[in-house]
Write a structure and sequence with these properties.
Largest sheet: 5 strands, mixed
Number of domains: 2
Number of strands: 18
CATH topology of the largest domain: Immunoglobulin-like
Strand order of the largest sheet: 1-9-3-6-5
Oligomer: single chain
Distance between the termini: 68 Å
Strand content: 35-45%
Number of helices: 3
Order of helices and strands: HEEEEEEEEEHHEEEEEEEEE
Shape: flat
Length: 244
């Protein structure tokens, strides 16, 4: 006797859809955000820090990629996980990539991973349903010959964050003119930071981190200068920088 109007029907459908969507999402994952990160597993005696945290989610897969200090994938030979009931591990027994999944919210455990040619294991802490979950986590493990590269990372962790796409808090984008699309540039703590797929030719850098996981990516820290020269497979590019 009192049929719904067209607008009433639309409102009802929207409300039903919203409730179905809310019910389908596990409470522990309702506000969780997927991110990609690069972390350092510093296992050198005398400099060891807490094991890196791997943040997992429910109903989603996290890819864990082990690399050396320069981002070259490092093959895995074996692993042991503390809790086999609440966490699932998939590994093809060939490469340096693992797929991890949490089966239970708010679960925690640890994992020891052996890498090819390395005498001691790399330990990771696994945590389920945090505010963020790692859909892609690059775990850098230094070799003996990587001491210089590792020291750069210890002194300037914000350079490693740039490889994860995280710009340091307080960094200011620089005005760029000249060759375009050669990199990104910031002013941070009185120095310039450069993120580029090319190679810095001039000036000399203070710190440098290289990543070779997918192609080559370089992060440089330099003294402020109006001009930088960057080389890539096209040629040498002149970039004018200005703090405005």
């Amino acid at each position: 006797m009192f049929p719904l109007s067209a607008s009433d029907i639309q409102s009802t459908k929207s409300e039903i859809s919203a409730r179905q969507k809310a019910a389908a999402v596990m409470p522990a994952m309702s506000d969780a955000k997927g991110v990609s990160r690069v972390v350092m597993a510093d296992t050198k005696p005398g400099f060891a820090t807490s094991p890196p945290n791997v943040r997992l989610g429910i109903g989603v897969v996290s890819s864990i990629i082990f690399t050396d200090a320069k981002g070259v994938v490092w093959p895995i030979t074996s692993y042991v996980i503390g809790d086999t009931e609440d966490f699932a591990v998939n590994w093809d027994k060939k490469g340096g990539i693992m797929m991890l999944q949490s089966k239970k919210p708010y679960a925690n455990t640890n994992m020891a991973v052996m890498l090819q040619g390395r005498a001691t294991p790399v330990t990771l802490m696994l945590q389920s349903t945090q505010k963020e979950w790692d859909y892609e986590l690059y775990v850098r493990v230094a070799k003996a010959e990587d001491d210089t590269h590792l020291e750069n990372i210890r002194q300037s962790p914000y350079l490693l964050s740039l490889l994860s796409g995280i710009v340091p808090e307080g960094a200011k984008s620089l005005s760029v003119s000249g060759e375009q699309n050669t990199g990104k540039f910031w002013l941070y703590q009185g120095h310039y930071l450069i993120l580029t797929s090319g190679t810095l030719i001039s000036p000399a850098y203070i710190n440098h981190i290289e990543d070779n996981t997918l192609g080559t990516t370089n992060v440089y820290e330099i003294v402020p200068t109006p001009v930088v020269m960057i080389s890539d497979n096209v040629g040498v590019h002149k970039i004018n920088l200005k703090d405005e």
